[in-house]
Amino acid sequence: MLNTLSKLKDSLEKRNTENVLRSLKHKKEGVDFYSNDYLGMAQNVPFQEIVLQEINQQPQLLKGATGSRLISGNSNFTMEVEAFIANKHMVESALLLPSAYLANLALLSAIPQRGDIVLMDECIHRSVRDGLRLSNAKSLKFKHNDLEHLEKLLKEANGNRFIAVESLYSMEGDFAPLEKLAVLAEKYNAALIVDEAHAFGVFGYGIVAQKNLHKKVFATIVTYGKALGMHGAAILGNQTMICYLVNFSSPVIYTTGSNDLHAMSIKKGYHFLENNSILNQNLQENISEFRKSNLPTLSDPQSPIQIVPMANVSSAKRAQQHLENKGFLTFAAVAPTVKEGEERLRICLHSFNSKEEIDQLTKIIKEFI
Ligand SMILES: Cc1ncc(COP(=O)(O)O)c(C=O)c1O
């Protein structure tokens, strides 16, 4: 045991020396430019009242699931909500999971088989990579948003091909060329998997639905932990694929189901977003305000995630600390979250940020870089 602990200590010490040690910190006070609560739903009082009213009317929503969904933990209501979600996204079926991390694990660990190949964007989220670690399929990375590189790999690939991308990249703030990816997927008979964690809610039900690509995408993952301000996720796609997951995917089978409160809150969240498009308008205005600053960024002009490149780990960390001292909360993304040498400051814009806050933030960053 002493040996094991000393190995763990060595790894932590190495991280500490490299100035990239992670730790859980108390919640900070300051203006939020770092959370994924793009539309302020996590703190939206009228929405909370809607949920509370439902709980008061139907306290049985709070009942625990009591087991795996395949034993005692399923409910008619959750299945109704899944049908509601599938309908909203114009797909045959939806499967609810406790988070998008688990949704990606569930999908990628179970669907690609031995002999198959998964081509993933080099910037894809860790949950996709972790899912593939549990799979027998081979995986290769293609250069970020580089269709030529992807096509080369598709040509060389044997076996069933999969392409895995995010519609809006979480650490880049740029979009995948989804229409072109769908054309390539069709040309090479590849199954396209799109993680819409950061696009859902900010761009309607996500970019797949917005661009009418739902019939060309094999599986879409949406999370309810970001723009919807809650937690949970759904895998969307064809009925056979969902049925396969229910039969073969460990993260679906070997875990306790969620209670009906979760499904109800998600359903109310969809309705709330439909009736409150002002939140999206405010967000887009704030993104435009940020972009007026002309700070250097490769992020898309419409993205709620705006990335400002930093020279190295210490300048990224110093920028974050400097902003925090001035009352602005941002995130210094350093390795292993991003590649070494690609350190950056990640700014998340929200519907609730004020123009003054955004102007002050950009002024301070400009002084600093
Ligand atoms: C692209 C992407 N996929 C999946 C996830 C996981 O989402 P969740 O927080 O619902 O587990 C995240 C969150 O960090 C993400 O950025």
From TrEMBL:
Keywords: Pyridoxal phosphate, Transferase. Residues 30-363 form the Aminotransferase class I/classII large domain. InterPro entries: Aminotransferase_I/II_large, AON_synthase_class-II, PyrdxlP-dep_Trfase, PyrdxlP-dep_Trfase_major, PyrdxlP-dep_Trfase_small. Its cofactor is pyridoxal 5'-phosphate. One of its GO terms (molecular function) is transferase activity. The keyword Transmembrane helix does not apply. The keyword Iron-sulfur does not apply. Signal peptide: none annotated. GO terms for biological process: biotin biosynthetic process. PANTHER family: 8-AMINO-7-OXONONANOATE SYNTHASE, CLASS II AMINOTRANSFERASE/8-AMINO-7-OXONONANOATE SYNTHASE. Belongs to the class-II pyridoxal-phosphate-dependent aminotransferase family. BioF subfamily. This is 8-amino-7-oxononanoate synthase. It comes from Flavobacterium weaverense. The lineage of its organism: Bacteria, Pseudomonadati, Bacteroidota, Flavobacteriia, Flavobacteriales.
